[in-house]
Specification:
This protein is of the alpha+beta class. The chain contains 25 helices and 14 strands. It folds into 3 domains: 327 residues, no CATH class; 148 residues, no CATH class; 124 residues, Jelly Rolls, CATH 2.60.120.
C-alpha cells in the first residue's frame, strides 16, 4: 500500500472512530465513577498544566512515574488532543481510540497474519476488520480506560518476536527492542507486569517445544538464541524500571497484592465464566480450533499465543479478578487463536464459496460489533445470551438518574460556604464520585472515603467533615467484610452511635431503592468516640490499632483549630503536615492532642513558609510562631520566606499548641508544620 493510500485509510478510520465515540458519549449519562473517570480527570489536570506553557506538567508526570501505582504518563501522548480540542469526555475517549486503539489494531492484525503462516487463506483486509471490531479492545476504551496504550508495547514485542523468527535473527538487537516495548507496557500500567512475565515464559517455552519436536539436534543452539535474546530484553526492561520507577518497583516487590486485592477475588468457576463472557462461546470454539491447528502443525507462533494467554490468565487470577482493562493481554493473544480457528473454518471452502465465507465472517463481526454497542440490544435477549460478549457495551445509563441529579442539587444548595462533605457509600448507584460527576461543582467539597479496607485502612480525617451522608441500605460494590470503612461509619451515623453522636440529622432524600440521610457535625469527635470506631475495626483487623500507633493520623484528625476566619485556617496538607494561615485580624491556633494510645509521639516539628517548589512571593514578610506543650511554651520566634525552623518536642505525651500570626501583613503567609516521628 502506498504512503498516500495508507494515509487516506488512516484518516478515514480516524474520522469514523471519532464519529462513533461522539455518538456513543452523546447517548451516555455522565456517571463516570471511580476508574471510569480517574484518568479523564488526570488528562484534564495535566492538560491544564501544559496549557500554561511551563514545565510543571513534566515535573508532575516524572514524579508520578517514580512513585505512583497509577502514574500520569499514559496521558502525555494525549496532550495535543487537549491543547487542540479541550478536555471534554468526547475529546478524551476519541483521543484514546485514535492514538492508542487504532495502532494496536494495526499491529495486532499484522501479528495475526504472521501467526497464520503458510496456512493463511484469510486476506489481510478481513483480518483487519475482525481486529477492528473485536469487542474486548473497545470495551475499556469506550469506558474511558486508557490501558490499551500498554497493549501497543505488548503487541509490538510480539510482532518483533515473530518477525525475528523467535530471535533466530539478530537476537541482541531484537532483544533490545523487545525490552523497550515490554518496559513501556509496565511504565504505562503496572499490572502489565503479569503479561510481561508471561511473554518471557511463553517465548522460551514455544521456541523450545518447537525445536524439540522438529529439530532436537538444534535444541542447544535454540536455547542459546532465545534465552540470550530474552536475557537482553529482561535486563534492559529491569534497568529502565529501576532507573525511572524505582520507588514503585521496590514497593511492588514488598507488597502482597493477592492479600491487598482479596476483595476483588473470585472463585475459579467465576473467573472461567467471565472468560467465556468476554470471548463468547462461539469465540472459544474458534479458539479451540486454532489451538488444534497449532498443535497439529506445530505452529510456534500460535503456541506462543496459547502459552502467553494461559500464563497471564493464571498469574492474574491468583491475585484478583479481571477488569475490562486487565483482560486486554489475554484478549489480544486469544484473538490470534480465534482467527486461526476461523481461518481453518474458511479453508474448508473452495473457490467462490471460500470468498463468500470470508465476506460472511467480516459481515458477521461487524454486525456483532454494532449490536454490542446498541442501546436496544436488551430487546434481543436470545442474541445477547449466545453471541454478544459480556458484560455488554451499551452506553452508560442508570435508572433514577433524574432523582439523583435533583438530590445532588439540593445537597449542594444546603451547604455553607466552607463546608466539607463526606459520603459513606460505595456503589454504582450512590457514591462521592458519582455525585461529583453528576454535579461537578460539588467535587471540591468532597473528602473522599477509603473504599477498600486493606488499601489504606480508615482515614480518621473524614470525621472532621461538616456534613456527612449515610445511606440505607448500605451501598457497597464489594463483599461487606472488605468495605467496613464504608459500612461501619455509615451505620454509626444512622444509629447515632459512637462518633455519630457528634452529628445531627438535617434532612432525608428518598431515592429509588435507598434513603439518603444528611447529617451535620455540631461538635468535635471525642477520643472515646474514636476509640469506639477503632474497636469495631479491630474485631476484623486486629493489627490496625498497633498500625495506627505508628502514625499521627488520629491525633491530627482530632486537632482543635481556632474559629475560622477569612484567611485563617489549620488544615491537613499531608499525613504528617498541617497547613496554617493567620488571619488579617489575628492569629490562627491549632492544638493537637498527642496520646500514645492513639498514635505516635512526634519528636520534632519543622516549619517552613510556602509549599515546596513554588515561586517566592514578593509581598511575603514572614510570620511569628509560638509552640507550647500542655500549656508550657517551648519556642517562639519569627519565620521568614527564606528559612525553615525545626523545634524539638518533649518526649512526654500531651497537647501541642501551635500559633501562627502575621508580621506586618498576611500575604503569602501559608505556613507548613511537618511533624517528625522518631528520635531527635
Amino acid at each position: 500500500m502506498t504512503f498516500w493510500r495508507s494515509t487516506g485509510v488512516a484518516a478515514f478510520l480516524s474520522l469514523l472512530v471519532i464519529a462513533l465515540c461522539a455518538i456513543y458519549i452523546k447517548i451516555e449519562q455522565p456517571i463516570y465513577i471511580w476508574d471510569l473517570g480517574a484518568y479523564w480527570h488526570t488528562f484534564q489536570d495535566v492538560g491544564e498544566m501544559a496549557s500554561r506553557g511551563d514545565a510543571s506538567w513534566a515535573r508532575f508526570v516524572q514524579q508520578t512515574v517514580r512513585v505512583a501505582d497509577y502514574n500520569a504518563s499514559p496521558v502525555v501522548p494525549l496532550l495535543p488532543v487537549y491543547l487542540i480540542f479541550g478536555g471534554s469526555r468526547t475529546a478524551y475517549v476519541s483521543g484514546i481510540a485514535v492514538l492508542y486503539l487504532l495502532p494496536t489494531v494495526a499491529i495486532l492484525a499484522s501479528v495475526t497474519r504472521m501467526a497464520l503462516g503458510e496456512r493463511r487463506v484469510l486476506p489481510f483486509w478481513t483480518i483487519f476488520i475482525l481486529t477492528l471490531t473485536f469487542i474486548p479492545l473497545w470495551r475499556p476504551t469506550l469506558r474511558g480506560y486508557l490501558d490499551i496504550i500498554g497493549l501497543i508495547g505488548l503487541a509490538g514485542a510480539t510482532w518483533l518476536l515473530f518477525r525475528s523468527d523467535f530471535l533466530r535473527r539478530a537476537p541482541v538487537r531484537v532483544g533490545i527492542m523487545i525490552g523497550l516495548c515490554l518496559w513501556s507496557a509496565f511504565l504505562f500500567r503496572r499490572w502489565f507486569a503479569f503479561s510481561v512475565v508471561a511473554f518471557f515464559a511463553a517465548a522460551a517455552a514455544a521456541s523450545l517445544v518447537e525445536a524439540a519436536v522438529r529439530a532436537p539436534f538444534e535444541l542447544k543452539k535454540r536455547l542459546v538464541q532465545v534465552l540470550g535474546g530474552l536475557f537482553v530484553a529482561g535486563i534492559l526492561a529491569l534497568t529502565l524500571t529501576f532507573a525511572f520507577q524505582s520507588e514503585l518497583a521496590v514497593r511492588a516487590l514488598k507488597t502482597s497484592y493477592a492479600d491487598a486485592y482479596d476483595a476483588y477475588q473470585w472463585p475459579a468457576k467465576e473467573h472461567f465464566a467471565a472468560l467465556v463472557g468476554w470471548l463468547t462461546p462461539l469465540g472459544l470454539v474458534a479458539a479451540a480450533a486454532g489451538i488444534s491447528s497449532a498443535l497439529r502443525f506445530r505452529n510456534e507462533r500460535l503456541l506462543f499465543c496459547l502459552f502467553a494467554a494461559m500464563i497471564t490468565y493464571v498469574l492474574f487470577t491468583r491475585t484478583q479478578r479481571f477488569g475490562d482493562h486487565h483482560f486486554l493481554p489475554v484478549a489480544m493473544w486469544s484473538f490470534v487463536l480465534i482467527i486461526a480457528g476461523c481461518n481453518e473454518a474458511v479453508r474448508l471452502f473452495q473457490g467462490q464459496s471460500r470468498q463468500a465465507a470470508t465476506i460472511a465472517l467480516a459481515a458477521g463481526a461487524c454486525a456483532i460489533f454494532v449490536a454490542s454497542l446498541s442501546p436496544w440490544q436488551g430487546r434481543i435477549p436470545a442474541l445477547a445470551a449466545t453471541i454478544l460478549p459480556k458484560p455488554d457495551l451499551r452506553p452508560l445509563r442508570m435508572a433514577g438518574y433524574k432523582a439523583l441529579t435533583a438530590a445532588a442539587a439540593q445537597i449542594e444548595g444546603s451547604l455553607r460556604p466552607n463546608d466539607r462533605l463526606v459520603v459513606f457509600a460505595s456503589s454504582a448507584v450512590f457514591s462521592d464520585t458519582l455525585l461529583s460527576e453528576i454535579r461537578p461543582s460539588l467535587r471540591p467539597r468532597f473528602d473522599l472515603i477509603d473504599h477498600v479496607d486493606k488499601f489504606k485502612m480508615f482515614t480518621f480525617e473524614l470525621l472532621r467533615a461538616d456534613v456527612a451522608l449515610a445511606v440505607s441500605p448500605d451501598q457497597i460494590h464489594l463483599p461487606a467484610n472488605s468495605q467496613q470503612t464504608v459500612t461501619v461509619p455509615n451505620g454509626m451515623l444512622l444509629e447515632r452511635r459512637g462518633f455519630g453522636r457528634a452529628f445531627v440529622l438535617e434532612r432525608v432524600y428518598n431515592l429509588p431503592g435507598m434513603q439518603v440521610s444528611q447529617f451535620r457535625r455540631v461538635r468535635g469527635v471525642t477520643a472515646e468516640e474514636v476509640g469506639e470506631l477503632l474497636a469495631v475495626f479491630a474485631k476484623t483487623y486486629p493489627a490496625w490499632p498497633a498500625a495506627y500507633q505508628q502514625t499521627i493520623g488520629i491525633p491530627l484528625a482530632m486537632r482543635a483549630v481556632s474559629e475560622p476566619a477569612r484567611w485563617g485556617h489549620g488544615s491537613l496538607a499531608s499525613p504528617n503536615t498541617i497547613a496554617l494561615h493567620p488571619d488579617a485580624d489575628g492569629p490562627t491556633s491549632v492544638t493537637i492532642p498527642f496520646d500514645p494510645r492513639m498514635g505516635a509521639i512526634p519528636s520534632a516539628v519543622e516549619f517552613r513558609l510556602g509549599a515546596v517548589n513554588t515561586p517566592a512571593c514578593d509581598t511575603a514578610d514572614g510570620v511569628t510562631i509560638s509552640v507550647s506543650e500542655s500549656g508550657k511554651k517551648i519556642w517562639q520566634g519569627a519565620l521568614t520566606p527564606a528559612t525553615s525552623h525545626r523545634v524539638p518536642l518533649p518526649v512526654s505525651p500531651g497537647a501541642v499548641e501551635i500559633t501562627v500570626d502575621k508580621r506586618d501583613n498576611e500575604y503569602c503567609d501559608q505556613t507548613y508544620a511537618t511533624f517528625e516521628i522518631g528520635e531527635n
